[in-house]
Amino acid sequence: xxxxxxxxxxxxxxxxxxxxxxxxxxxxxxxxxxxxxxxxxxxxxxxxxxxxxxxxxxxxxxxxxxxxxxxxxxxxxxxxxxxxxxxxxxxxxxxxxxxxxxxxxxxxxxxxxxxxxxxxxxxxxxxxxxxxxxxxxxxxxxxxxxxxxxxxxxxxxxxxxxxxxxxxxxxxxxxxxxxxxxxxxxxxxxxxxxx
Length: 195
What we know:
mainly alpha
């Protein structure tokens, strides 16, 4: 329904633009196409079609109601276009946040499995680029994320729980709850651990 309405509005708006373009098109035709008065096709076309059509379009373009209708419909078109762009942007961001949630949970599980044996953080060094990338993406999307200090924590329990909990909210589409949950982990993950 929305696509049909949008297409209809754009079609009507396009038709309303024709009388505005008609004077420029008439001038161009007179200078380029109708410049050779000796041509039979030129005089036949000019007399039969061009003059009455352009005269009607020029007269229509001068009507006060026409200008009001064009201005009003232009405003409607700008509004519809902005709303469509906003919707598309929101959908794109929601998809990115859901994908981020899946990555959070996947990393949580990978880190949890590897840290079951002693050796944190050395046993997850190969996951560090992926983890830093995911945390950077979270910050770009407005979700609080810890920095590299998480590798100074005595174990990865808090990090795994942070990734699991926030990831679950993101995957479920509860973006406000995910942001709140992420902020609540700040005191546990953002402090530097002293040796």
